Amino acid sequence: MSALERQRRRAGRLFVIPVVLISVAVVGVPAVQAVYYSLTQWNGLTSVFIGFQNYTTGILRDPNLTQILTNNGIILASIPVGVSCSLVAAGALTRIGRSSRFFRSVFFLPVAVSWVAIAVAAQGLLSYTGGLNSVLRFVGLSGLQRDWLGEPTTALAAVVFTFNWAVFGLNTVILYAGMSAVDPSLHEAAELDGAGSIATLWHVTLPLIRRFIDLAVVITVVTALTQIFALIFVMTGGGPGYATTTLEFSLYEDAFTNGSFGLAAAVGIILLLITLVVAGLSMRSGIKSGEHIS
Asked: What global pTM score does this model have?
């Protein structure tokens, strides 16, 4: 190793040290504290070490745990459908070409709006006195009216629809960027070989933008597990009953409604582990698919 290379390495380490220290202070220390408090009975002021009781008796024996995990699972299961809709929109924008700027701005608009504003708008649309029921009455379908946010059979569906609409714009832009990077000559070669639009999309475009698809899926998965609280809090408050309660919302209720901060910390650790596992599996799938394509 030359003297210049050693000097560059030392300079690189010096530049990295502040970032590592900040990351440890902002992320590492709170994470360690959360692990500790998850092993205590903590009311926000005093804590008593109780071992794994928050996990064994607080979480695993929660009668609503199955419902909560099912709600999270349904939201995650809707992600492929939402990403597919973004994929269709991105394909349409690619075909339109330069004149797609207006539509890109419209699609990206939800990303520039806060989750609270989106939830308030959805509540105004889907409540019993909201816009959707007004439209149903206007077209003579008053028999289909219902409190879309107040019935267990429709409340979670309303949250899922609103969530996927909120992330639709970001996913569309990501996939549009991927499609725009594909060499047009590859599409032309496929057409010359007799491939139709669907065959070209399936055998040429999708494999080449697979990493963009994986990025959209991972971002949406992490968002669904850790950033959907505002939608649920404003739209349904976790109800009716536990019909729309997720792990993230359960963490809030345990801490700030019931005062069980130790139990909330345990729920947070479980949520972190689930997020890491699901995101890791998605990323690993993307890496394997990229190696297969290459």
From this structure: 0.86
